Amino acid sequence: MIFWILISVLTALAALSVLVPLTRSRSSVEEAAAQADAAVYKEQLAAIDRDLSDGLIDAEAAEAARTETARRLLSVHDRKDESRPVTVSKLRIRSVQLIALVALPAAALGTYLALGSPDLQDQPLAARLSAPADEQPVELLVARVERHLAEDPEDGQGWAVIAPVYMRMGQPDSAARAYSNAIRILGSRPDWLTDMGEAMTVSNEGVITELARTAFQQAVDLEPTAVKPRFFLALALTQEGKRDEAINAWQALLEGADPQAAWVPVARRELAGLTGETPELLPALRGPSQADVEAAGEMSDDDRQKMITTMVQGLAARIDANGGTVAEWGQLMRAYMVLGKRDEAFDTYRRAEKIFAERPAELARIKDAAVTLGLSGS
Fold this sequence. Notes:
This protein is an all-alpha fold and 378 residues long. Helices cover 76% and strands 0% of the residues. Among the domains are: 2-115; 292-373, Serine Threonine Protein Phosphatase 5, Tetratricopeptide repeat, CATH 1.25.40. Keywords: Cytochrome c-type biogenesis, Repeat, TPR repeat.
């Protein structure tokens, strides 16, 4: 309470410093100016008399000078007389100013006392930060994590938690730094590398820099079938003007893709811009049905692995019987890699090379899939 009373007093003093000069009567200022003018003109009359007595001017010139000076002196006296009635209205102005001087601080204080909480204790930042997380706005939660990271900058999990929040808040630079710290402390993960590269790209207004591209490539090295980093790598090739490589990258990405996936229309548009033709999506390969998924959930790890192996063997049998499309060969290579059967994946790649040897465009897509999976140098 004392604090707000002091604020009111200071407000009044500040208002006084402005109002006091304004309350000075205009008539008093004008009267002082008139007195100064009158003194000048009287001095001029005395000077005329001296010049006449000293013989510096003749009587006719002296009379003319006296007449003009006397006229100006009378004009000064007339202005003084006109300014006197103004003092009455100035008194009213002073009254209004005084009321405003007292009423405004009083109204402000009264409003606060009626609507505010003058008895509520201050809540320092530390207290607000220590409140339960579900009671805090996002900004305070971020400040809470930032304070923790300032005290413990080697908390990799803390950096990983705050990084996506920075992205949602429109701070891609901060997000990229946070992902970089998380990777430095906890090691590389495909999703962190991808998100770090994306943050760098957003920060650079959509242009994929060399650092961002390195992050995407590292993500693909760790997870060859990941779509998001491969998407950005294909986009990087497009931006760099590497037409043939970009076409192969987009085609490999679209093989067997779900037409409903959010990224597919963008990929098709990019590919159409390179080839001049809108690509037709190859139908996605049949995945497990709902019944298959439910059955797999009730199986042991060994039984589940056997079921997956059986499905992959079925795909391989269909390819052997019908020849298979590029998408199916690529799917089979990826399936073997997921199962950890690198040798089988490489053998599948070699067989596909022979089958598509006379079809350069399709062979290029097979090779691109192999490069993505890390099989080309095996």
